[in-house]
Model the fold of this input.
Amino acid sequence: MKKILIIQHKMIGDVLICSLLCENIKKHLSNVQVDYLVNSNTLPVLENNPYIDNLIVFDEKEHKGLKKMIGFARKINQNQYDVVIDAYSKLISWLTVFFNNAPKKISYKKRGRSFLYTHNIEKHFNPKSHLGLAIEHRLALLQPLGIDNPTVHFPKLYVTEKEKQFAQVEFQKHGLHPQRKTVMISLLGSDETKTLPLAEMAKLVEYIGKNYEVNILFNYFPSQISQARQVYDALSREVQQKVFFDLLGDDLRAFIVIMDACDLIVGNDGGAINMAKALEKPSFIVFSPWIEKKAWASFEDSINHVSTHLADFMHEKLEGISQKTIKKQVFEFYKFLTFELFENQLKTFLNRHLGGIKN
Done:
């Protein structure tokens, strides 16, 4: 049996998207073992995935420091892999690759790092399909395995029937209207530079609640409750009655199960959006001005998956400015990204999926 290790550290969205490699390998190659090396905090998005044989867990606290990371890499090498695919390609994964004796090592072409790998895949800068660059780049890592035309393009989350029943019980417990569709709001990005200003987010939520007969849930971490409360307090009493503020879920897996019971998601780009897509939920994304839309606007079809970006309306304000510079000045650029700018886009999306504005 050929043993293959896939490495994808850090963020939830990246780990979820990269799980596509596991499924494609299993479906295109016979007699293979696929192991997946990920950070401990991302494990809930991989639960019940039938295309992963073993999860290799990296704990940042446990393996902090160069000596411990080298020890971790040497331990991984004991598994005697035939192939290592490094989809992360940063210091942590470089060490794992350097101390691994696999005869085939695959990653992206990077100056000064090519010697680590037997196959260095060149990234392209413009999407070739509706999948977006984030997915296209990862699927390209399969080429050295002879998988030139991957058949699986959508990452998936696997929710059990027991978990589905749990979500329905939670909905009933919190008093959600059973005849209404439920909208999840991706209220906050992973940090402030990826978060639509709260006043504009409040306008977005107010518009949805005022014009559609829906249940509204907020996605936020417990540590972000003050920002979530700020948005809630800015809403009219009529809309507040449609927001079920405390239906949050105790952990990441609980969020996945609750999201699975929702009908669509609207809000800031981030892990919540990627998980919703993996559950085949329609999405409307508001991208930060410094994020490249072409990289992360996956499955964009103007129907089920729609996104908005400042560049769609004011391209000249961003033209010729690097992502790094925009990120440093992101709050100045965010001032231009008002709710009114993309209101009609959102209206078209919501009318399609919620059945039109109420009378």
Notes: The longest strand covers residues 32-39.
